[in-house]
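Cross-posted from the bioinformatics board.
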Amino acid sequence: MLTYLSRRIAQLLVILLASSFFVYNLEAIAGDPLEEIKLSSDPKKFQTMQALIRQLDLNTPPPIRFFKWLGGIVSGLWGNLQMGDARTGQSVAEAIGNAIPTTIRLVLAATILAIVLGITIGVITALRQYSRFDYAVTFVSFLFFSLPIFWVAVLLKQYLSIGFNDWLANPVIDPVWLIGIGIVSAIFWAGVIGGDLRRIAIVSASAFSSSTLLLWALSSIDWFRNPVLGPVFIGVAGLATALLITTASTGLANKPARNASITMVLVGLAIYYPIQQVLTKNVNGWILVGLAVATVIVGLIAGFLWAKEDRAPVMRTSTITAVVIAGMILLDRLMQEWNVYVANDFVSYRPIPTIGQTNDMIALQLDEEPDFWLGSLDSALHIILPTIALTIISFAGYVRYTRGNLLEVLNMDYIRTARAKGLTERTVIMRHAFRNSLIPLTTLMAWDFAGILGGAIITESVFGWTGMGTLFRVAIVSFDLNLLMGTFIITATLAVSANLISDLLYSALDPRIRVGTGE
Amino acid sequence: MKATRIVRAVAVAAAGALGVAGLVAPAEAATRSLVVIHESNALTSFNSGTPETNLVTNSDVGYLTGAGFAYYDDNRNLIRNTTFGTYGIVTKSGCALAVKYTVKPGRVWSDGTPIDGVDLLLSHVLASSQYSKDAGLGDPADTEKLPAFNSFYGGPYDSHIKGVPALSSDKMSVTLCYDEFQPDWPIMGPGPAPVHTLVQMANGKSSAQSLTQNKADKAAFLAAFNSKDTTLLKKIGDVWSNDYNIKTVSDSTNELLFVGNGGFLVKSAVADQSVTLTVNSKYNSGPKLSGGVKTVVFKFIGDSTAAAQALANKELDIYAGQPTADAVAALEALKGVTVKGGVSACFEHVDLRIGTGEEGQTYTGPWAGMSAKSKALRKAFLLAYPREGIIDTLVAPVNDKAVVVNSSFLLPGQTGYNEVSAYTKSVYDSGTQAKRTAAALALVKKYYPSAKAGSKSITINMLWGAPSNTRRANEFQLAKNELAKAGFNLTNAGGTSGWSGHLGENSYDAAFFAWCPSSVSQTGTNANFQGDGGNNFIGYKSSAMDKLTAKLETKLSDKDVTATIKAAEKLLADDAVSLPIFQHPAVTAYNSALKNVKPAPLTPNIVWNYWEWKY
């Protein structure tokens, strides 16, 4: 194992060295950093060129300059990292330091969402193989897979932002839309649930009527201008969620699990009003972390108390429910800011932005009068569109991988054995098939998480975020070698390490695979 | 299934119960007082005076936060800002030219400190190599080490200023003395800088000081300036060169950095996202803020589609860019948005190689030198170059007022343009393109009797901009097609990135690209055509031209300037050296509710008349 690791790490270093050497020199050959200045007829142009030549050390041939740069990186080993300055004079380390949190904020949520949604839908399509739903999802996921992100972004902005904001001026849902959405929902749920004709008829009818009614009701009480959840909704939706979670986690037959889950909903309702006193404007991150920890502890305790034996599944179920309920309460708290937010002069009833990380004027107000929730709502609204865009294009991969893997596992002998033992279908799928089908996905996930820091070059640019992707793009087009190499070395290191980590994880998860034997 | 249905059914009831909260109707919007302006590039510094930070966004922000003696309007005219002060030529013994700048009494910085002549002295420190060397601040010509003030040295001010600016006894004026007449003296003047804040920051202060202290620190600067106090000036140079290079501004940022005399002051900034400016309540250094705008936000959006959509979503009030025809159509379709086509500072032109450039071996291309044959071939090439076709196809859809440019020295709309461009127009812009191409073919036939349309008698290697630029690619194609009718065969010499590095080489016969003048000056074009000019890549050496450009560097009446340029234009047309094509189109689209938005081609572009903006 140790020899394997050291061999791999040595390989990684060689790859990093060689690739950074090539990238550096290719970019140096590719363009002239002085191009724009040469074409200016500015009287100051010769001084500007002189200054840039001096600053970027352009009189040194690129291969030698590369080793100067490398020296700065290597000296990072004894804590004196020198990444040089970008051509704007800003230090590369500082630029990257600013970009990393932005990128993480942008890409992390989308990656997690894509994984969760993609795996869920992938499982459903595998279980409903060759059904209409399966075909429909296959079609949609290939469609999404092939969409260029800049185009998705433009469409999202046009409809979900500009269109939605226009609509919000008079938020009445047109009857045609009500019916249309109802039909889509009917088709979707009928597909997911499946069954014989009678069942399909019931499911579609109820899905159609419930979604149409819900939207009609929301529209008629003007909910879209004034969205809140409130304790009643949290209670009802919480109860439904508790039952769903129990079904997936242990099965409804497990009474302690069901009771523990329901208890969590009741606890959530009981603290709904008191907790509002804690979740004030001045709440800070530590209080929220504390509350999160408390939520998990309460969930564990409830599970522990309800279960007499075989406690682990019960505790798991009640904890998941507790977290979801806590999430609803948080969402509700965030929504309470909506009225204040949209009425703000600088939002003026156009809450969904097309661009940027925050609303500058809200940020300015928050400087003077901090309000955690208003700021959070502002950030949340700014992240909606990029998250949707990124999720749409990357979730297709997960759907297809999960479906394929799960189908493969379901045909294995040990699944037949499990069924023959008389295990419930839920146990067979969730415990024996699903878990094993996730193993190959670790590779994909490791890559995706490494990709997070690489940034989303196009997404960042169309949504006006300045993360690693933007730095990379700017560095390439302006022939800014220090900046380019700064972003490259981080991204490349992560990519090669992800490769190694996924190999190690693979062997840890799958006992059939062993690393380091050399054969 | 059951669960879902229950959830949905009850959600309706729940939502109904919540309906109590009532309706929120958009309130009648109060008069808007915010203007959000689009910038393609992010701000990198609050000092645009260093070579690294001399960028559009930085100088636009600087324009709103600082007022000086003059500014460019939307017609490239230099307007005197008489609210701030006056300037003019005075007679002074020992000076070939003396210019006196006087600050109008009563002008104040945003911290209340009066502005006077002492505030004009920093400009000299920033521009004079001699002063930098004398004061022990480093030699700006040293290629290894930066001087204490990392500024622009060189240029006519640096070469011709005599001594240091003389401060008047009332300290309200300074007089600059030049050893030679400078035709461009109006754009060489000093600008005010809050020197007291520089002294305070050099001494480690980070918050506003009392008025008495400010006055004392200003006196300290004057003393250091006069005695060339290396220690203090070096510290100030460090502050000036580095401390302004920040991208994030919050309440905890050193407020001394943002003392200014413009209509607006920097309030906050988010790195790579935006800068927010609010009204300077003590502003009296420029035209009165008449429009009631209280806040200006510069928002950085690199992607032009994204910016246009932000405009559609009312997140932007002013969008400026150089979009494609489709994008312009999309902008025009927006409700509540006014679209104005116009020109940017750059103009496209085609240059023909005549002799050896700055490097490489002797040029021996088809039209090398000044023989009758070479001139005729070059003339044929320029005659057949489809300038009108290029404008109609590529430029007019974006700027419907686009016209063929016929002068390499002046641009349409500038004083004297019609007069100086008349000759070039008569030669290269009369009749139809078909006639001109036929004339070109006739010229070619003289030397290549077998030439006819498509004969490819003369192969011309063309250098042009990056391949990612669609307009340039289309331009090349249009030129290739039309020139083929005159017997020319256009091949692509460059078209690669880094092409500008080849401008000085002999590897091409013709090139088209754009010049982007950043100011209007009598001498600014000289470097393009002087035998040893820094921008003369094509090896054009003409003693007649050198005489004319030398004349432009002397004191001339407006009439003489026009006459000289006219002669130079005639020379260029007869020698068939270079031909301008079109001004790059620019589009400004803005919230129709905002009045007095006037796009301007020269920096500070759209913000030049910010004081007039009004809802």
